[in-house]
Amino acid sequence: DADVTQTPRNRITKTGKRIMLECSQTKGHDRMYWYRQDPGLGLRLIYYSFDVKDINKGEISDGYSVSRQAQAKFSLSLESAIPNQTALYFCATSDPGAGGNQPQHFGDGTRLSIL
Amino acid sequence: AQSVTQLGSHVSVSEGALVLLRCNYSSSVPPYLFWYVQYPNQGLQLLLKYTSAATLVKGINGFEAEFKKSETSFHLTKPSAHMSDAAEYFCAVSTPNTGNQFYFGTGTSLTVIP
């Protein structure tokens, strides 16, 4: 089984709909992240959480919200989806490590299309 | 602020040839540097990381990278390309003074020609 699981893997929806993307992990990591990937732009950070009570905005948080339900679960919501939110979304986790030098571990992504 | 530049969004090499993917970073403090690979329909997989130990870092699948502070570079190399190396490659930088957020480059798509 995957260490970082994202559901759904694919989603097609309409403008204005509310969408929730879910992420769960079995790695026991405190830190979790949501990114979006667009062709030619690499990965951009949407939100991150260093523990259950800690939520932080990333580079492109407008139009998104998150919830950290437990150490192992971190969900991303689009309250009213718009077409330019069509992208590939990734969840990642990491251990703080010594001085924060630990790599991030990624799920397989959710491909979201908004019509 | 931290940033990463990957020169060349597309690189093509012949099977058996040297692979060189370029990454330059900007950081006001000593960085941690990472290379990831992404195969189609998959997430990012860690290839290797530099965290202030040896400047020449060896990773999985025969890849290695060398941290050069004077050139602010962390280029990825592999002596002999294999067809299975065709993928998207991302360089990332992280530093303690930015909460260890990762800043990713825009990626380099590697094509291996038979």
Notes on the structure:
The complex is a heterodimer of chains A (about 120) and B (about 110). In chain A, about 0% of the residues lie in helices and about 55% in strands. Chain A is built from no helices and eleven strands. In chain A, the strands form two sheets. In chain A, strands 2, 4, 5, 6, 9, 10 and 11 form a seven-stranded mixed sheet that branches. Chain A has a four-stranded antiparallel sheet with strand order 1-3-8-7, with no helix packed on it. The radius of gyration of chain A is 13 Å and the shape is globular. The model of chain A has no long low-confidence stretch (mean pLDDT about 95). Chain B has about 110 residues and is mainly β. Helices cover about 0% and strands about 50% of the residues of chain B. Chain B has no helices and twelve strands. In chain B, strands 2, 5, 6, 10, 11 and 12 form a six-stranded mixed sheet that branches. A four-stranded antiparallel sheet of chain B has the order 3-9-8-7, with no helix packed on it. In chain B, strands 1-4 form a two-stranded antiparallel sheet. The radius of gyration of chain B is 14 Å and the shape is globular. At the A-B interface, strand 5, strand 9 and strand 10 of A face strand 5 and strand 6 of B.
Give a nutshell description of this structure.
The complex is a heterodimer of chains A (115) and B (114). Chain A is built from no helices and 11 strands.
How much of the residues of chain B is beta strand, in percent?
Answer: over 45%
Q: Please bin the fraction of helical residues of chain A.
A: under 10%
Derived from helix and strand composition plus strand pairing, the structural class of chain A reads mainly beta
What integer is the average pLDDT of chain A?
Answer: 93
The most extensive contact between chains is: A-B, 26 and 24 residues
C-alpha geometry of chain B: globular
Largest sheet of chain B: 6 strands, mixed
Secondary-structure content class of chain B: mainly beta
Q: Tally the helices of chain A: what do you get? A: 0
Span between termini of chain A: 32 Å
Order of helices and strands of chain A: EEEEEEEEEEE
**Taking Cα atoms only, what radius of gyration of chain A do you get, to the nearest Å?**
13 Å
